[in-house]
């Protein structure tokens, strides 16, 4: 039997077509916008410390995003991407993972990295491409990465991280580790071939991986209605033999709960899971984008009312763990810290010219050594044209 | 020593690599129980189990994406792409991911353990899609190494070095020679260094440069030329990226002439890169224009494959023209 995955087949004798209506995908909601729980909703594993850590990350990301968009407008950095509106999705899910589980992000998950403890200074070094950037100033702003925090360095091409997540998770399985990869992507990226390759391979190889889709309604300007005709992303996983769940992506408790359950299945049974978080990108795609050209203020307002940060704040206040006064105080402090760190990082020089040719290979081959030495001779001849690096050459 | 064909040498290299290092894992389409469509991975699943030698779904981009992830984790994946003609769905994973992993992360992450094996080249009546030589698509990508062996001894030593090299390596295997090329191969473990060309035969009148299956063709052409009294120095480049400029420069400074031959189309072919570098480095030593004997700038044909191929006669004629220039 070549298709052993289908033990029982219902036989019919007249043509019978199936369609999306044969598969109903429910959506998990736990927390209401007023900060109270839905009746009968079960809380995730969460205590005061975890709740406050998640919320602290929310406030930090709001402060960071707000300041860095302004910094881009002022010409201090070349590019930025906010995650405003989607904080519950990436931060709530990362909070369900073990600290040594690998995170493979797309590019709008700085919250996940902040939750892991990436220092504010390191965010700034990366954004200013200076010599303290762990990525040695090579990538555009927001392409963070941290070996120490198990956060794979971001690459711009979409969905390439998905089949890689399957390979990485296969490594966990080979070594019988109790770990799980979480891999983030958007609903637009799910149109890439790599998405389909990855989900299929995860189903076939049965590896501990969570595919986390932030369905935020838009791929730059293209609405999801022009991205796919089916019922979102979750049902696709089922067709590949992968379990799926849809959650309210602005409901941090639902995201946390779903991811905790998914991680348990992934680690205990090598069961891959796809989580589709329904959310909305309240900001522009990037600082190079202007959403007024493709969507209405009214639509944005509707989603602003579902703000995940506000929703969690009200829950925390209801719990007696937080207050409006403390909220204002904390946000103000974070804004000041971000401003100070930014001013510090922009004074740090660019990486040395030698870093141009390191890490292409483990050891620079002769042709790269030659090209670097030719380049240095040229910079010495025209130092005014290359101010970022010329000043350093004089020291040598 | 034992007599092996090129496939047996590759299978032997994989077996040694897997038995000495349990981080080495082999996979690809039909690679598992069946041992690959050419049988390069025969018996590896029996010996090392299904978790270390296995079939993948039919998705080249998935295979290389998976391999990148596994390599990032510290494993040494040896991924097979069944024919080099089918490597293109994986082009993004190779060019944008494998090649740039170390650089973009500031050496925090790398896929140095990755080796991609793939049979390439014509001469098996394969037409457009079982014959291509896509090496030049990859030689323009910093971060990759590109290696092509010419015979069983070379294949084993270069493959072992590729698997153990701490950079992603694309290892193209000359499938026309899989069974046709046989020779004495040491049974034990040995490596042939990457990035080093080999002077296969010394000579004084002209340098003849090639790699992979083309070396057999060039040996025939050289034999014809030598009958005419032309002394040829024959070099196997072995690694195309990074390539051994100095060995070729030293040879051309001695002979004053250079012929480069490959099966891939001429325009954008790797011979163009070598020509440019050699004229920069050896301009005053050259006694004739650098000659390229290559495939035509067409898709790989079926009925006319003999006519398309840069065979020994085309090379023989080019050698004479260069010497008589």
Automatic annotation (TrEMBL), chain A:
Its cofactor is thiamine diphosphate. GO terms for molecular function: branched-chain 2-oxo acid dehydrogenase activity. It catalyses: N(6)-[(R)-lipoyl]-L-lysyl-[protein] + 3-methyl-2-oxobutanoate + H(+) = N(6)-[(R)-S(8)-2-methylpropanoyldihydrolipoyl]-L-lysyl-[protein] + CO2. The keyword Signal does not apply. Pfam families: E1_dh. GO terms for biological process: branched-chain amino acid catabolic process. Keywords: Oxidoreductase, Thiamine pyrophosphate. Its EC number is 1.2.4.4. Residues 57-352 form the Dehydrogenase E1 component domain. The keyword Oxidoreductase applies. It comes from the Bacteria. The branched-chain alpha-keto dehydrogenase complex catalyzes the overall conversion of alpha-keto acids to acyl-CoA and CO(2). It contains multiple copies of three enzymatic components: branched-chain alpha-keto acid decarboxylase (E1), lipoamide acyltransferase (E2) and lipoamide dehydrogenase (E3). Belongs to the BCKDHA family. This is 2-oxoisovalerate dehydrogenase subunit alpha. It comes from Oceanospirillum multiglobuliferum. The lineage of its organism: Bacteria, Pseudomonadati, Pseudomonadota, Gammaproteobacteria, Oceanospirillales.
TrEMBL record, chain B:
The keyword Nucleotide-binding does not apply. Its EC number is 1.2.4.4. Residues 4-180 form the Transketolase-like pyrimidine-binding domain. Its cofactor is thiamine diphosphate. It comes from the Bacteria. It is an enzyme of class 1 (oxidoreductase). GO terms for molecular function: branched-chain 2-oxo acid dehydrogenase activity. InterPro entries: THDP-binding, Transketo_C/PFOR_II, Transketolase-like_Pyr-bd, Transketolase_C. The keyword Electron transport does not apply. Keywords: Oxidoreductase, Thiamine pyrophosphate. It holds the Pfam family Transket_pyr. One of its GO terms (biological process) is branched-chain amino acid catabolic process. Gene3D superfamilies: 3.40.50.920, 3.40.50.970. CDD domains: TPP_PYR_E1-PDHc-beta_like (cd07036). The branched-chain alpha-keto dehydrogenase complex catalyzes the overall conversion of alpha-keto acids to acyl-CoA and CO(2). It contains multiple copies of three enzymatic components: branched-chain alpha-keto acid decarboxylase (E1), lipoamide acyltransferase (E2) and lipoamide dehydrogenase (E3). PANTHER family: 2-OXOISOVALERATE DEHYDROGENASE SUBUNIT BETA, MITOCHONDRIAL, 2-OXOISOVALERATE DEHYDROGENASE SUBUNIT BETA-RELATED. This is 2-oxoisovalerate dehydrogenase subunit beta. It comes from Oceanospirillum multiglobuliferum.
